[in-house]
Amino acid sequence: MLRKRFADATKDAMKSKEAARLSTLRLISAAIKDRDIAARSDDGAEGVSDDEIMAVLAKMIKQRQDSAKAYEEAGRIELADSERAEIKVISEFLPRQLSAEETEAAVAAAVAEVGAESIRDMGKVMAVLKGKYAGQMDFGKVGPAVKAALS
Question: Does the predicted TM-score (pTM) go above 0.90?
């Protein structure tokens, strides 16, 4: 399903001559193709699932956020803006991000589901959250929330 959306978006960007958008869509396709090739060599599968594609997109967004921050610190505002524009395009294909309240509720539910009692159970809680909410929350920010809930 996501692959078709990428293909359609790429065609639309070509037709409307949106060079920056087209470039970002091609980067996404290349990253997915790389993941497909790696998966094929591992177990002979045809391609990665939509969940794995979401993980690739989330990783791409994280990389661009880090790059934009580094560019800003170096005074390269135009490059930081370019990175943010790419983030916007990539974000179109991810599900809606959970609000702070929804994230807190998800953390509490995951802690209860696993029966976590101490910080040692943090990995189990994070695994549950990643399984259910891939692409819907920033796990770098969720980690401290899980840690606080377990302490």
Answer: no
